[in-house]
Amino acid sequence: MAASVYKWSIIPLVAIILMAARPVIVHPFHVSVIEINHNAVDKTLEISCKIFTDDFEKILAKNYKAKVDLINPPNKAAMDSLVKKYLFSHLSIKANGKPVLFSYLGFENDKEAAYSYIEVQNVPVVNKLEVTTDIMYDQFDDQMNIMHVTVNGNRKSSKLNFPDAAAVFIF
Fold first, then answer.
1. pLDDT digits over 31-40, tens only?
2. CA–CA distance, 114 with 97 (Å, rounded to integer)
3. For a 10 Å CB count at each end of the chain, is N or C smaller?
4. What torsion do the CA atoms of 91, 105, 35, 87 make, to the nearest 10 degrees?
């Protein structure tokens, strides 16, 4: 009987040791957040995309067959190229019914999240924004993409769950 008690008391200890040895951050949900702000003074759309770093690194490595490190990139220009390529192929916007051209500004990492920045120039007024995104849909079938759009201080939000990919904002 003592051996049986010993056997069952060691299992939780081994499980704790194995979990502590894994430095991987595990999160139970898959979400990105896209913020779009219309800057009336500069006539621009300022766009930021927040994606969990570990998930983003996996999909970039998978899609582009490259070694990806967004936290400590050995070659920042190469990582910028991959991030830009991915975002430009998974995000599109129409302002007032017309497709916009993105200018990629870069990305930064804040431990568990990667923030990417895009700008659209020559948008003097926004009456309607049509946003299409399937960011991370090629990785997760439970992906949720949350969008916040601010025009003239008026903020509107939308949530897209896989496979939905389009939202319209009227101002």
1. 999 999 999 9
2. 30
3. N
4. 20
